[in-house]
Every structure is written in structure tokens, then in C-alpha cells.
Amino acid sequence: MASEPHSSTIDPKEAAHFGAHAADWWDPNGSSAMLHKLGPVRLGFIRAAIDAHWGGSAQDLRPLAGKRVLDVGCGAGLVAEPLARMGGAVTAVDAAPENIAVAREHAAAMGLPIDYRNCGVETLADPQFDLITALEVIEHVTDPAMFLSAIARLLKPNGLLIISTPNRTPLSKLMVVTLAEGFGRIAKGTHDAARFITPEEMEALLSDRGLHVMTTKGLMADPRYGFVLSDNLSVNYILSAAFSSHDIPPSASKPA
Predict the structure, then answer these.
(1) Structural domain for 208, as ranges
(2) pTM exceeds 0.85 for this model
(3) Are 215 and 253 in contact (CB under 8 A)?
(4) How confident is the model over 12-60, as pLDDT tens digits?
């Protein structure tokens, strides 16, 4: 028997799980330690994609000046704050009210005017955004197709989308669930490996919504440098996408 369609992308159990760890989200050794370690490489990819998409310069300290930015599944603001520092007018949403409370407090202390909201992305009725990020989020929503449809509706015709998520492979289950959660680098119970999405599945979901993938890179642990971008997508990957009708500068097709 077919399941009933979801009315929200928010899974209450997932929201409660992440909300329970809100207090130590900004602790690099706490329950979000892995996100802190992923931060530099993810932000490096985002910055390169921004410069490629809009023809910017790596020397520009505020490449998002004048642009509207949406960070979906923002947690306590680990990505939203750097995007604001890049000059973006940032709106950030999360399913857990505890996360939003911590995010607002931290942003206020940093002097960053981020518009934080406790809601699902499908409820937003804002004008469209130039940049949308959804990092380590889609594997936690009730309906990935609904989630991406909401994002596509909110993205400007010449906008840029960045998504990262674990791949669904035996290796990702071992690394992300068995080891990372087992050794406390991620809070236990954070992931269900059956909900991971392969790059091929992600590309098909995006294509169905008029979006095409421009660059995909793996996020892999390197004992020398921490996490690095890689051609190996077997554990975790990050991608940039845009609407097919948009004329992408040639540099956007180059690896980040």
C-alpha cells in the first residue's frame, strides 16, 4: 500500500535529535566535531563555486555582496555565519527550535544580522535567492524530492545551489555510522545509512527539477590535512548545480 504524501520535509524525530545537542554545536570537540572538521573544505568548495558561477575574484573579501542567500538546515550557524561574512544577506532555517536559539545568540555576539527561522524550507514564501546551501541535510528530511522541489522554487533562474551529503555505500556506512558515531565524532543515532543518496540519484532528482550538476567532488579524510576534496565520492560528496537554462561560465565546469 502506497504511503501517504508528506505535508512537511521535517522529520520530528530528526529535529528532536539535533535539538538535543544544540548547546554544544559551536564546540569543536562536541557532538558537531565532524562538521567543524568539514568546515574549511566545504567552505572552500562553496567559495570556488561562487567565483566560478558569477565570474568573481578569489581576492574579493565579499563575493556575496548584494546577493540573497538561504542556508537550509543551518543548525547553529556554522555555514550561515561565513556566508554572511562574505557579504550575503542570509536567511537560515532549521527544524529544531533549540538550534535556532543558539544560532541567534551566537550571531548576535558576532555582530552578524542573519535572519534565522525555525521552519521547513517548503513553508518559505520569500523572494527567490541567489545562493542556496543545504549541507548534510537532505539525508534527514522526510521526502528528498519534496525538499528539492521547495529549493528549486526558491532559487533564482541564474542562482547557484550547493548540496553535500553522504553517499549510500558500504564504505560510507562504515565510516559515517559505525566509526564516526561509534567513536563519538558524531552523536550516536544521527544517521540512517538507508537514507543516504547516491550521486546518480541526486543528479536525477535535480534534473527532474530543471537543475543540472556542474561540479561534484568527494569529501575524504586525509591524515595529513584533515578533510580534502577528492575524485573519490564513495563516502561523502559536495556538488554545485544550476538551472539548465543558465549560461554557465566555462570555468564553472572545472574541478573546485
Answers:
(1) 12-253
(2) yes
(3) yes
(4) 888 887 888 888 889 988 878 778 888 999 999 999 999 999 999 989 9
